Amino acid sequence: MTKYADAAELRARMVDRLLADDLAGWAAQVAPWLPALATVPRHEFIPDTVWIKNPRHWPTLLPLHRDDDPARWLELSYGADAVITQVDDGHPEGPGLAGAMQTSSASAPDIVAVMLAALDVHPGHRVLEVGTGTGYNAALLAHRLGAEHITSIEIDSSVAAQARTALFRAGYGDICVVTGDGALGYAPRAPYDRVIATAAVHSIPYPWVAQTRPSGRILLPWANSYTGALVALTVDEHGTARGGIVGESSFMWLRPQRERRGPVGDVVGDDEDRAAVHLTQLHPHSVVGDHGARFAIGQRVPRCQWRYWPYDEQTGAGVLWLLDFRSRSWAKLTHITPDASDHEFRVHQDGPRRLWDEVHAAHQWWIDHGKPEPARWCVTVSPHTQHIDLASL
Length: 393
Ligand SMILES: C[S@@+](CC[C@H](N)C(=O)[O-])C[C@H]1O[C@@H](n2cnc3c(N)ncnc32)[C@H](O)[C@@H]1O
Description:
Blueprint: H1 3-20, H2 27-30, H3 34-39, E1 49-53, E2 61-65, H4 70-77, E3 83-87, E4 102-106, H5 109-119, E5 127-130, H6 136-145, E6 150-154, H7 157-169, E7 176-179, E8 192-197, H8 206-210, E9 212-223, E10 228-235, E11 241-248, H9 265-268, E12 276-280, H10 284-288, H11 291-300, E13 305-312, E14 317-324, E15 329-335, E16 345-350, H12 355-368, E17 377-381, E18 386-390
Parallel strand pairs: 5-6, 5-8, 6-7, 8-9
Antiparallel strand pairs: 1-2, 3-4, 9-10, 10-11, 11-17, 12-16, 13-14, 14-15, 15-16, 17-18
Helix pairs in contact: 11-12
The structure holds S-adenosylmethionine (SAM).
């Protein structure tokens, strides 16, 4: 079997997987994208070196070169997960050749499909993509709308150069790939009918609104330290964009908005024994397991990251960490049964903030407000302000 046949077969399997999935309710809107997904050779956009999670020393990332394991490289290219294509902005910082932070990737096929569906494009639309990455998503857009209608902007010049080469080779060389900070949009080709960001933002850059036509749509992964959501906005004739949450998302940050992340030990240090201890009746899973609760908590408790290791038989415990890197505050919740049958959980917390108390209070606020779904939150972006509010019923 030739390499091409292998790739075609894997691509067909990728499409079958997407067809078998309800895609968070977007399956019907994904249908018009199936010809593009079945045709665009995703593996031709994946660089020869990709990065995989180090099973022995998570969360470090190890390089996998195409020549070392061509079959695995190809399978990763069409797998269900994102393919990490750059770490540490191209300068791996871990010990040896390992990387620490994912800085560019080909997003997972299901989120690619959901975002394209939610973008709601129509023939003739002109699209700005922020975060070219491999160029794969830009190629899908070009397949459907025509390469001359697509502008894509990438902050990293080497990533942008690779994407240009891959797009040219795959026949989409007329896409305008710009090297620059996508937070500024790209005014020379504005206005756009659609703007799609493939890197997360906390503060939505106003140029995206200013460069979108009235009644045009902006789709972006929005995030805070606690959670992420897919936000769709419609721009009005006065230059204000309004909309809300249309799904979940988990993306790497737009570079200028990146927040510091790191291992738990960076915040906790050797202080664990000195922490205040008490008991709580709220199961750790309640504050991280439901998107609605996560969104409400993230809105009310700023700068709080979490790491959750559900119950594990080997250690006989599950652990939730809450972390604020800036104030070096942390909380740790432990549960010791595999299901939700623990009635009390041990809480350790330390630092200037009492993170568990804040998260617990925010969770109670969510319950008191009728457990609003993420779709109940409204996002408004005008030239001078932006806010997210809970819509009244
Ligand atoms: C998840 S990847 C994009 C995936 C891509 N759309 C694809 O199809 O492969 C996010 C990309 O956003 C880029 N990026 C981060 N900050 C940016 C910025 N301020 N402007 C433009 N691109 C940015 C990163 O370098 C990275 O390549």
